[in-house]
Fold each of these.
Amino acid sequence: MLVSSPNPCPLCGASSAAALSQIHLSDVWQAYAEQWATSFSDDVIAKYGNGPVALRRCSRCELEWFDPALEGDSTFYSQLFTGGITYETWRWEFDQAAQRIADGARVVEVGSGEGAFLRSVLPRCRSAEAIEKNPRAADLLRAAGIKVSEDDVRSDALVRPGRADVVCAFQVLEHVADVRGFLSALATIVVPGGEILLSVPNRERFRQGMEPNDCPPHHLSRWSPRQFTAVAEVLGLDLALVEYQPPSLSHARASRQRSVRTTLRPVTGPRVAQWAGRATARVRMPERRHARLAAEGRFPSQGEYGHTMFAVLRRRG
């Protein structure tokens, strides 16, 4: 059912949205403790609370976002990385993005973390700069010889517009409350004809149970391919490319196992259904077939996706 949301869509500004579900932050805190051995101080929990947060889907651009938008602050993130969660040393989209960086390019990455991507392309860039608000990560970037700004990207863009041939933001959009303002800042930093490289988690990926990292205060929105078209329309950019990470072998098998198990359980009971699902998944998705489907990019046509989507948008001019 469509309702008028007191807070408009953070991407396109539409005021009508479907109410999809609610989550309770008490469940998020518990899931962090159980899945990642990560606990938060009483002050952090008091700031965000334990109560419900609504998940809405925009009627115009179909972005899903949490309302209210409880954006994680520096204290939340400093405590988030005290358990089993760490910065990734490499991501699937880094390989896709590296192909877009020409020799001599001026590159700015927003939300660089410890700089795995920038370090990899630094030798062939005319300049490489990070915008990173985590003080510890910023220090590591400076130690690697990378120029760092700890300012908010929106204020940074106003002061120093049009300074990059490529602007990157990998796995950042889903953390941002002001989605449109953030994207507008990226478009301001890049020169006319330059490219904006984005990656976000794909909400259509295979999922199991509560994922605390896909909830506030960590993630504030959930994305599907349709939103990249909306980004281009809202900001007057050209959408040049969208690519999809293939599902892992374990997830490709798990989706098939789930289908068989659901069908057989009423007939055979849970134990036999579980065994039959596992055996069928291995037969239908051997390692070699999975590798071939992934290499040929055929999983998306079957409605199967891995964790990440990668998009390239180009500023007109």
Amino acid sequence: MSKFIEVTAGTKVLINTEEIACVEPSKDYLDGSEVCVITLIHTTKHSVEGRKFITKESYEEVKQMILGTK
């Protein structure tokens, strides 16, 4: 069964944790606040798609959501 987390990337976005390839900390280029970059990979029968989301949540917050402690 898939697990989803809700993050803020401009608007609220639901992300399937099974499609997460990478989670890395970063800084917002506008105000220097701590943000998180989530890289998703979605594979279908005919193609592979990759997307990056820059979230307003910090790396630690996203990590806790994925682990299920938040």
Amino acid sequence: MRAAVSFLKAALALAIAFMILMLLILIAVAFLALLVTAQWVCPFAQCSGEATDLWAFAAFSSIVGIPTILLLFLMIYYGRRR
């Protein structure tokens, strides 16, 4: 019985870690897609008018996007060192 409980705990931990990793990847991809779209719609140096809202949204989402990308890089780097 202990082995089954231990196995279920390990499987749950692995599933949660995988879900967190997928969430981080999703946030990073969404942030990078937002930056690419903003640059494509209105290049930063020439942007004016309503299109600047896209750059404002990218700036506000950078609070989450940039640390997420850094965290993913650290996870990949230290995961490969093992």
Amino acid sequence: MKYFPLMSCLFVLLLLGCNEINPEGEKEVRQFVKKWNEAHTQLKAPYLGRDYMARVNYYGKERTRPQVQRDKNLLFQQFPDYTQRILNDDLVITKEAGSYLVAFTKRVNYNGIEADYPAYLSVMFRNGAFQIIREGVAKNAKDLDAPIFPSARENMAFQSENRQLFGDFNGDAISDYATVISPEINTTTKTEAGSDALISCKGVCNSVITFSAKNLESITIQGAYQSQLENLKDLNNDGADEIGFWDLKPTTKTLYVFNVTNGALLTEPIVINTSVHKNLDLIDVFKKTGPSKITVTRSEQVNGKWILKSEVIKLD
């Protein structure tokens, strides 16, 4: 029993010290969070996934690491100018059971908007590195319906199986797929007959073609909110399939023909006036007519009358 006072003192010290932060540990946590924050750029965002655990509580919902990475990618596809910083570099770090809770004010800028949000991360040291187990903002924060949060992107249509277009888009002889991320439409305003309706979107009114092959960059089509994809096969003999994107409007439909490997258009957009030239399919407006040759047909107005005009294009 002579060791009881000593053991009691050690127990009290351990009990009182359990919530205190090792100064060296706090320094490493600060460095990790700073690096994570600085990675929120269009260039570095594709590598954010490595900072997260395999399963994460992400803005109130359980998500896998790939799902978090995809959401970060979509954020920068929707808002290429998005930036964030930790206001005054002020981090409040609290030691929890086996992890660190880091609270801070996140100042974001996107699409001409600046806003501050009380945010937090929970990080854990695992396998020689810090990883994130929770990310979110305070429940009482204002403007939580802003389009920069994951809940807004969950409403973006559709990344389901029936929207995937399969093909060999990077030329590696392995099948991959493309899908379209469309904007969420807020309102549609009717205009005079013969004119397209005025569309208001939540965020930017653009569509984005994304690819399962990691070496292919996404393609953004401005002003497109309803679409359809076409696999045009290999048109320029580079070993990769080209992709067609139909931009569908009430009185027009426009076919964009993309070289997926570099995101370049192979021809000027092919516009069809659907109020005059109805029920035209892909084969009616686009054909491969020879080695590295295509024939395109578009609507043109000549002497006040709409006609269909065809053109043979030699591909480089």
